[in-house]
Design brief:
Helices cover 66% and strands 0% of the residues. By secondary structure, the protein is an all-alpha fold. The protein has one domain (3-127). The longest helix is centred in the middle third of the chain and has 26 residues, at 42-67. The chain is elongated, with a radius of gyration of 16 Å.
Length: 138
């Protein structure tokens, strides 16, 4: 999938009222499915890619939070207790100041995700390091 196709897919999702998704992560998930040699009907593939995206996003968030120094992690977690006042700017301030190697964390998360995905015969969120309470949005 070309970069233009990936971006077009993200634009279509945004227009249809779906959450905005990073086209590079969607492409990463699509490539994993292709490398694994899986074949799915279009509707099933879109659901699988959505599930994979949500799970990757969760794992990345968890890895980013875990990479914060202890004081910054406590500050961030206290911010999340009042979701009404939480903003992307506040989140950005915490991570920009405290996680200079975010690209490495993204790469490591991609490796971690790919390793689990490729070794399992079927995609199942229970195979990933997320809490049992993790629920995928419909």
């Amino acid at each position: 999938m070309s970069q233009e196709q990936a971006q077009g897919s993200a634009t279509t999702e945004q227009q249809a009222g779906h959450p905005v998704r990073n086209p590079f992560i969607l492409n990463f998930c699509r490539v994993l499915v292709e490398k694994k040699g899986e074949s799915h009907e279009p509707e099933a593939l879109e659901k699988l890619l959505g599930d994979m995206y949500n799970l990757y996003e969760f794992m990345l968030g968890e890895n980013m939070v875990n990479s914060l120094p202890e004081a910054a992690r406590k500050h961030y977690l206290s911010l999340t207790e009042d979701l009404a006042s939480l903003s992307y700017e506040k989140i950005g301030e915490v991570f920009e100041e405290n996680v200079p190697d975010y690209k490495e964390i993204m790469k490591d998360t991609m490796r971690q995700f790919a390793e689990i995905f490729m070794k399992n015969r079927e995609f199942n969120p229970r195979d990933y390091p997320v809490p049992d309470s993790f629920s995928q949005p419909e």
